[in-house]
Specification:
Blueprint lengths: L8 H23 L12 H16 L6 H15 L1 H6 L6 H23 L1
Helix pairs in contact: 2-3, 2-5
Length: 117
């Protein structure tokens, strides 16, 4: 390799740190129920709904009705498939976000009852 194409120690460390941080970020996105590969190309409302659906199904499934659970699972399935995800409009997130609001109100009521006692 010629001298002008070699990385300096500082450049090498910067690239190494950047790669590690990218891996950490991708891992965190996956834990939040998001796909790192499509994160930059998906509408923000759909990403919010995907994250809420993941949270509700993993942490608050006991508060969901069967129809709400099916709606959330169907939305997650649509978001997993690239073809259907690209066809989804941001308004498709409304059903998921409405379910999330209902569950959050239930959680708040439960929390308020626990703290008042």
């Amino acid at each position: 390799m010629s001298k002008q194409h070699r990385l300096t120690d500082k450049q090498f460390q910067i690239n190494l740190r950047s790669d590690c941080q990218t891996q950490d970020t991708n891992r965190w996105l996956t834990e939040q129920g998001l796909d790192a590969d499509t994160f930059g190309t998906t509408h923000i409302r759909l990403l919010q709904a995907q994250q809420q659906a993941h949270t509700l199904l993993t942490h608050h499934s006991g508060l969901l009705t069967d129809s709400q659970r099916m709606t959330l699972e169907r939305f997650q399935q649509q978001m997993r498939q690239p073809k259907t995800r690209s066809r989804l409009k941001p308004t498709a997130a409304n059903a998921v976000l409405n379910i999330s609001s209902r569950v959050n109100r239930q959680l708040f009521r439960q929390h308020r009852q626990l703290t008042q006692v």
